[in-house]
Amino acid sequence: MKSATSATSPTATSLQLGSPRLLALAQQLRLYKPPLCSPFDEESTRKLVSFQELMAPVRLTPKKAAVLICLFEGDDGDLRVILTKRSSTLSTHSGEVSLPGGKAEEHDKDDGVTATREAEEEIGLDPSLVDVVAFLEPFLSQHLLRVTPVVGILWDKKAFNPRPNPTEVEAVFDAPFEMFLKDENRRSEEIEWMGEKLLFHFFDYKTGDNDYVIWGLTSRILIRAATVVYQRPPAFIEQKPNLKYSKM
């Protein structure tokens, strides 16, 4: 596994290639402070604790993971996010759309390193091209991973030549970031999880001859990230998932 170093301040590249809008966004995100608790309620915390008690004497400790929300400016000046379609041979979430990322390793000094290291392994994105500007509050995955979204700016899109790892990634594409706040090309469905009926959002996106559906944890994270970036709520009822850890 390769190690990586996350950047946390403006670079010469950002000053040379970044538009005034993107530079202002980077500065805004560097000032972002996530809530003390992630946006999940106490009821499901109790349920998770009850599940842990059933597993006694083994204590369930969620493993850490991080995903990279890599943003860049498109040719039309719109903000876009890099996404992947997972390989159909994977044992979990095969063929689904996801953000680059994965589980933390012992040598990772922070979530930014985890996210950029995994992005390099999955899609060939050099960590030196990504300016990490913000860490959002953690999310709990269905496999009980504590997933931290890491927001990074790709100042020079032309310097990135996707090289998907075929064992993990089937395709690399990008989508308009603002679409995750809009009610267009979106549908929702109630799905029961851990005894709760949750509202899941499905975003349909077509690029070229390829049709993608973005849903589950990925859509939840992107809705939250877009809310933070654009500083406005989505144009639909979000109904955040009912899970939370105290003392994150």
Identify the notable features of this structure and list them briefly.
single chain; 248 residues; alpha+beta; 23% helix; disordered N terminus
Question: N-to-C SSE series?
Answer: HHHEEEEHEEEEEEEH
- Strands, total number: 11
> Distance between the terminal alpha carbons, to the nearest Å?
27 Å
Structural class: alpha+beta
Largest β-sheet summary: 8 strands, mixed
- Classify the helix fraction into a percent range: 10-25%
Structural shape: globular
Q: Which percent range describes the beta-strand content?
A: 25-35%
Average pLDDT level: 83
Q: Give unreliable regions as ranges.
A: 1-10, 39-58, 243-248
Count the DSSP helices. Answer: 5
- How large, in whole angstroms, is the Cα Rg? 18 Å
Give your account of this protein's structure.
With 248 residues, the chain is of the alpha+beta class. The chain is 23% helix and 30% strand. It contains five helices and eleven strands. Strands 1, 2, 3, 4, 5, 6, 7 and 8 form an eight-stranded mixed sheet that branches. The chain has a three-stranded antiparallel sheet with strand order 9-10-11. Strand 6 and strand 7 (145-154) form a beta hairpin. The protein is globular, with a radius of gyration of 18 Å. It starts with 11 loop residues before the first helix and ends in an 18-residue tail after the last helix. Mean pLDDT is 83; it is low at 1-10, 39-58 and 243-248. This is Nudix hydrolase 22, chloroplastic-like isoform X2. Residues 62-218 form the Nudix hydrolase domain. Its cofactor is Mg(2+); Mn(2+). InterPro entries: CoAse (IPR045121), NUDIX_hydrolase-like_dom_sf (IPR015797), NUDIX_hydrolase_dom (IPR000086). Keywords: Hydrolase, Magnesium, Manganese, Metal-binding.
